[in-house]
Amino acid sequence: MTTQVNTSASSETPRARAVQTDPDTPVSIKAVDAPDQPTVTPELEDLYRGFEKELLVPLWTEIGDLMPPHPRSKAQPHRWEWATLLELAGRAGDLVPVGRGGERRAIALANPSLGGKPYASPTLWAAIQYLMPGEDAPEHRHTQNAFRFVVEGEGVWTVVGQDPVPMSRGDFLPQAGWNWHAHHNAADRPMAWIDGLDIPFQYEIEGQFFEFGRDVISDAERITPERSRSQRLWGHPGIAPVSQLGSTQGSPLLCYRWEHTDRALTDQLELEAEGHGATLERGHAAIRFTNPTNGLDVLPTIRTEFHRVAAGVETAPRRETGSSVYQVFDGSGTVTVGDFTWSVTRGDLFVVPSWQPLSIRSEASASDSDSGALDLFRFSDAPIFEKLNLARSSVDA
């Protein structure tokens, strides 16, 4: 079920703008007879023409848009069905090469309210990436922070800094910006996963860099170890190698295994059942992936979490500044974001724009979920908002 949001114009008092009178200037101001605007006179009209000519815009005509009482995101809530994404990605696998030019066979989610840009939200990029059997995605690096999350399949190794890292269902693989990386599929079948990056954020602030690497990775990087070098160093709970101490901007642990995520979520719900405070709310377990060198987020601009909602539980509506993208890992349920309500199942993705209320009802069972609950992977731009002292949240009782 999908309920469409009202996208009609705001009911607020009209502002003094929107009609361009001089083709030689991009600034356009129109005097409006409104209670909070100056009295419309020939002198005011002449003043506005002077503003337009000198590329000036008065705050009193713009304050309702520039400084609203709460965030009004340009993005809208939206859901993408995994089955459809996977089918289209498979067709792209037959038609689109993965080498230079194609670079990555990545297909981005485009929010319907962002003018066709490949953005899930104004700050977040999400894409399905698809690699055919025996294929290599060539090496490159970029300042954008990135991760990979695997909802199904195995057999692909991502190679970060010449360290082959296996990717399997439920694994979360962060990669801080400006690290060389490539991928290779050692399996006899295609594999798909989701990519998350801060591409829109870096693009809008004009701070991004990109560089091509090697076209072909070495034989030594084509090995398929069960554990990467990074996991052998950093993949031990509460233990850090003394030779590598020192805070890092991104996590040096390149893969967070599903078995550990699953165990942590299971333990939270079991502790709750025993009467101990362990969950975010009744029946709602949640974990956050952290950087083992400093306890902060795994990436400087992206927060990543995993949520488990027990069968029959409905979460309290929650609003947060900043946007989030969720992917259903297992189970089924009903999600409401603002004025939109959807049924979701394994693999489906949905976006929660800034300050839109989110509630989730789990309808999972043993027939569609290994855990018997609704499991969801989440990533957000929360670290940006926290660094700027703009993080706010509200939960309905």
Automatic annotation (TrEMBL):
<keyword id="KW-0223">Dioxygenase</keyword>
<feature type="region of interest" description="Disordered">
    <location>
        <begin position="1"/>
        <end position="40"/>
    </location>
</feature>
<protein>
    <submittedName>
        <fullName>Gentisate 1,2-dioxygenase</fullName>
        <ecNumber>1.13.11.4</ecNumber>
    </submittedName>
</protein>
<dbReference type="Pfam" id="PF07883">
    <property type="entry name" value="Cupin_2"/>
</dbReference>
<feature type="compositionally biased region" description="Polar residues">
    <location>
        <begin position="1"/>
        <end position="13"/>
    </location>
</feature>
<dbReference type="InterPro" id="IPR047183">
    <property type="entry name" value="GDO-like"/>
</dbReference>
<dbReference type="InterPro" id="IPR014710">
    <property type="entry name" value="RmlC-like_jellyroll"/>
</dbReference>
<dbReference type="GO" id="GO:0047922">
    <property type="term" value="F:gentisate 1,2-dioxygenase activity"/>
</dbReference>
<keyword id="KW-0560">Oxidoreductase</keyword>
<feature type="domain" description="Cupin type-2">
    <location>
        <begin position="129"/>
        <end position="195"/>
    </location>
</feature>
<dbReference type="InterPro" id="IPR013096">
    <property type="entry name" value="Cupin_2"/>
</dbReference>
<dbReference type="InterPro" id="IPR011051">
    <property type="entry name" value="RmlC_Cupin_sf"/>
</dbReference>
